[in-house]
Amino acid sequence: MNATGNTTGNAPGKPTDEPAGSAIRGLMRRAGQAALATSLAPDDAWPYASLVLVALDHDASPLLLISELAEHTRNILADPRVTLLFDGTAGWQDPLAGPRASVLGRAERLDSPRLLARFVARHPGAEVYAGFKDFGLYRLAVARAHLVAGFGRIHWVEAGELLCDCAGAEALAEAEAGILAHMNQDHGEAVELIARHLLGRDGAGWRLVGVDPEGCDLRREAELARAGFAKPVGDAETARVELVRLTKQARRAAAAGAG
């Protein structure tokens, strides 16, 4: 497994020496939506772009919950090759200097209660239609990705460089729902502290909506934020250690701000 220790949320930053694969993965993990490009069915193959909500599996494979009545789903059923554009340029004075990544792969429908729960946790509004017969969960089998992170930083990245190695983290996937319930029900104050004092996010009502080997995701109404772990986690205990560390760090920051 590998991990990033970033706890900065979505704010624009300066170019770094971070590997391209890790930079793309971070961009994807912070995103709540993406532009989906498919080939217009049945035979004219015009490019067709649409806006979709997106979540990620623990290894950063994108997840889509889409209706078979939608144009893009009909296109996928005819040709599963798609591209997702993740746009991280919000807040940049010059959007062309900001990061964005095109992730190419094949969309595959699957039946996974765990991944469906992960999607709905990230997008609570999806719970309304997640059980509809015409909706299905699709996972992108990533082939490669193209990063543009400002002028002069442009890279093609293969799937092996992009995806997180989750070998040994199966227990975390099984424990994730319980971790979220425990943190939100019993340690809501800690979640609020992390959001406010580590990620610089205002407002109350922040909830933990995802935990993966590299970090945790928070949501408040339409806002998403992410806190990275200093060490990779693979089960409930190692996740607890990192969440405690983040909470202590947030409390120190709160105390320093009050002093």
Defining key terms:
disordered N terminus; single chain; three-stranded antiparallel β-sheet; Split barrel-like; Pnp Oxidase, Chain A; 259 residues; eight-stranded antiparallel β-sheet; alpha+beta
Question: What does this 3D model show about the protein?
Answer:
α5 crosses α6 and α6 crosses α7. A hairpin with a 7-residue loop joins β1 and β2. Helices cover 32% and strands 31% of the residues. Strands 1, 2, 3, 4, 5, 6, 7 and 8 form an eight-stranded antiparallel β-sheet that branches. The chain has a three-stranded antiparallel β-sheet with strand order 9-10-11, sandwiched between helices. It has 259 residues and is of the alpha+beta class.
Element layout with pairings:
Elements: H1 20-29, E1 33-39, E2 47-53, E3 55-56, E4 62-67, H2 71-78, E5 81-87, E6 99-110, H3 113-122, E7 135-149, E8 154-158, H4 159-162, H5 170-186, H6 188-198, E9 207-212, E10 215-220, E11 223-228, H7 236-258
Antiparallel strand pairs: 1-2, 1-5, 3-4, 4-7, 5-6, 6-7, 7-8, 9-10, 10-11
- What shape does the CA trace take? globular
Structural class: alpha+beta
Helix-strand topology string: HEEEEHEEHEEHHHEEEH
As for the CATH topology of the largest domain, it is Pnp Oxidase, Chain A
> Any guess at the CATH architecture of the largest domain?
Roll
Task: Please summarize what this structure is.
This protein is α+β, with helices and mostly antiparallel strands. The protein is built from seven helices and eleven strands.
